[in-house]
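Case study B.
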Amino acid sequence: MGNTAQPMRLLLTVSYDGTNYVGWQYQENGPSIQQALEEALEKAVGRFCRVTGASRTDAGVHALGQRAHVDVCASIPPEKYPFVLNRYLPEDIRVTETRQVKDDFHARFMAAGKLYTYRIHNAPHASAILRNCTAHVPVTLDVDAMRACAKALIGTHDFAAFAAAGGQAKTTVRTIDFFDIARDGEEITLRVHGNGFLYNMVRIIAGTLIDVGHGRLDVGCMARAIESKNRLDLGVTAPARGLELTRVEYDFEREEASRA
Amino acid sequence: MGNTAQPMRLLLTVSYDGTNYVGWQYQENGPSIQQALEEALEKAVGRFCRVTGASRTDAGVHALGQRAHVDVCASIPPEKYPFVLNRYLPEDIRVTETRQVKDDFHARFMAAGKLYTYRIHNAPHASAILRNCTAHVPVTLDVDAMRACAKALIGTHDFAAFAAAGGQAKTTVRTIDFFDIARDGEEITLRVHGNGFLYNMVRIIAGTLIDVGHGRLDVGCMARAIESKNRLDLGVTAPARGLELTRVEYDFEREEASRA
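Model:
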């Protein structure tokens, strides 16, 4: 490395097709996004750098805007990292943006908001083209019933019923401030924004709404589950392939945006 | 097969992700869509049936609504074939509709209209998620210049300049009655409808428009090429992965629609 190298913490925006990965986090049973990024970084800067992601997405889950931080010491200008890293990364992982952040910045603990998208292909036959990024539901779903059910999610609630085992959250209270369900032909898109989500929470919400759209669960089930804190009041966990981590937000960016 | 089996000609609507195929047509160097369909049909009806496609899409080209005809003799009701065939087909090929047609129907020679879609991911870095169904162009394209250029395509013209070697068309005169260019964030979508297209014609149009959007070719080039019939007046052939055969139309369906 050149003698102009300065140690710095970088914030990365990462997009990936999660189909061929065991998930974000390093695991022994297959390739992870984290590992692919760390290997590309090692090639780029000549030493191992630990990457810390904002969200530990599961196997098969995609990301348009995952975020991660990493400490590097190299003579590469911060904004040039996408070009360098994408040279070494597989085609299904792209770093789309990098910037320097303060040394105490933490991609996961400082995340102030997240937007998730869940896509349903609602047609008699699965989609050949969208098969890896949609859940296929052959029976026509009642989107109005799904919307009525989802209304109960808005606000600050104890979402204990919405967490799969294996989560490590200290509290199960979360705030959801936006939930949208749109139908465009055969595609139904759910978008949910909140300050944070429990393990499998979005997939449990999506699976429950699919059951409601089917008529297998009533529109009151979501409100009831918030009250009861009982996972059994909710539906199945929807398939990972339909889920995308669309955006992760930080307060310092919101402040920048409000100043601009 | 049961003794209720009746010989009949079927019209299939087929959707596929062309990424892992050598193209529509049977080839020795790898799997084709046609071959996959014929193998699935053989499993379904117990004998080999030749499938004839409306369009011989190239390697890597996708289809939302390819059409094909085939003669079968089996006790399966015509509309049930998608369910049977999709059981045997790989996930990246789906038959979405089947119907009985007259015995002299021909999917290719009777095609009266086709709609193609070409997708460009116009962003500094390629898309991890859309990598197989978009052409990546890192430089911001001038969509207004592309629109101005594409206007020359509308109408009935001799498109001799727009054909790659290897085509078998008797005439190079074609009619294009619709051309739309839309930008949605980082995605630019071209849609072109006409009565037929020469070999590689849509990819040559897309590649030329990308060159015009770049400023490497002037907006008059398309009109000039129609006049000159010279392939050299046009730009590069855009990558196959951005192209999708969206729809194939037949007169008998148009008549049904107008009666309905």
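The beta strands of chain B are 6-16, 52-53, 62-74, 93-101, 111-121, 135-136, 155-158, 173-184, 187-194, 243-250. The remaining cases will be described in the next quarterly update.
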